[in-house]
Amino acid sequence: MVRSSSSFSRSSFSRSNHLTIQEAWEATHCKCPLPVEAQVSWTLDNPGRRFKSCPIYDENDKCNFYGFLDPELPSDYYRYLFFNLHEENKRLKNMLKIRNPNSEGASLEMGKLKEELTVISIVVNNAMV
After folding, report:
1. Same domain for 98 and 56?
2. Taking phi first (over 0 means left), then psi (-120 to 50 degrees means alpha), and beta for anything else, what does residue 15 get?
3. 95 three-state secondary structure
4. Phi and psi, residue 35, nearest 5°
5. Same-domain check for residues 13 and 34
6. Mean of all residue pLDDT scores within the chain
7. 15-31, pLDDT tens digit by residue?
8. Domain span at residue 60?
9. How many other C-beta atoms lie within 10 A of the C-beta of residue 46?
10. Peptide bond into 33 cis (omega under 30)
């Protein structure tokens, strides 16, 4: 299960405890040893970037287990673009909750945004290859 988190940024972990992408993919437990699950960062530094971390990362007994599952986006342009599209998507979802959930116009607008995000994801993935 992938959860969303907006509390992580590059500054919230120590480089010495940072795992490689391969190590993060292979990890099933942190050093505590508690099970770890993939989460999604929605910070400006790492929008949409999956990671695994110690479930008690913010507590005094933390083990600083932390690693990204995805490579870093290639430029600030893509980071801002992904972050802003995510924020706009959240805003539109909130608007849909307030309005009639069966509203055809809102559904069409959400569909267009999802298509745009998919196209951008493909472009970014191809640029990273």
Report:
1. no
2. alpha
3. helix
4. -65, 140
5. yes
6. 80
7. 445 789 999 999 999 88
8. 3-68
9. 21
10. yes
Domain total in the chain? 2
Q: What is the mean pLDDT of residues 74-93?
A: 94
Please indicate, yes or no, whether the overall pTM of this predicted structure exceeds 0.70.
no
Instruction: Give the C-alpha separation, 73 to 114, whole Å.
Output: 19
What is the Cα 128 distance to its own chain's centre? 17
Of the listed ranges 4-13, 47-56, 90-99, 112-121, the least confidently predicted one is 4-13
Pick left, alpha or beta for residue 66 (phi over 0 → left; psi -120 to 50 → alpha; otherwise beta): beta
Pick 123 or 50 by higher pLDDT. 50
Residues 90 and 119 in one domain: yes
Classify each residue of 72-98 as buried b or exposed e, where b means 16 or more C-beta atoms within 10 Å of its C-beta: ebeeeebbebbbebbeeeeeeeeebee
